[in-house]
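>> Question from a student workshop board

For tomorrow's exercise we were told to take the sequence and the ligand below, predict the bound structure, and bring the output to class. My setup keeps failing. Could a helper post the expected result so I can at least see what it should look like? The ligand is zinc ion.
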Amino acid sequence: MPDSAPPDPSGSDLSTPTASSPDLFTPNADELIANNARYVEEFDDHDLALQPRRKLAIVACMDSRMDIFEMLGLAHGDAHVIRNGGGIVTDDVIRSLMLSQRLLGTQEVILLHHTDCGLQKVVGDQLREEIEAETGQRPTWEIGGFTDPAESVRNSIRRLRADPFVAHKSYIRGFVYHVEDGRLIEAIVD
Ligand code: ZN
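>> Workshop helper replied:
Here is what the output should look like for this input. Compare the format with yours to find the bug.
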């Protein structure tokens, strides 16, 4: 039980939270499986090709408020979507882009960061110290915290442009999605 668990007014064992507990968590998998059974009944995507139709790869933050396909008017099969915390360019993003471009024919990359990102609230070095103190292991990866999402997009564009494993460098653009109203604003690199 995490330290943040609320006091149980009933005085019963905290390991058996009541339905009134604000922190009550119910795993989702069973409900999702039921949802999928309904999805299968109307499934209509059997003709989609493995290669994305628009020859497009999108690198985006994992934020749950961004429905990438819906916000961009994309259809199933149109694009690869590579997501991580922040939508920053990491070695694994480069790996996926390399596969996307070389094996699956994509030629354009769009980067999507957003306002109110969790990574704007993270001080990378401090978090690494905390993780190391707690686990005895120092993460080998960067946390990737940033303060300005537009600047983070520009840095990501620069990193892609400089990377030897990324092709089609004329077709790399980046945007900040505004979670307040759904707008996309382009982050331009000179
Ligand atoms: Zn984010």
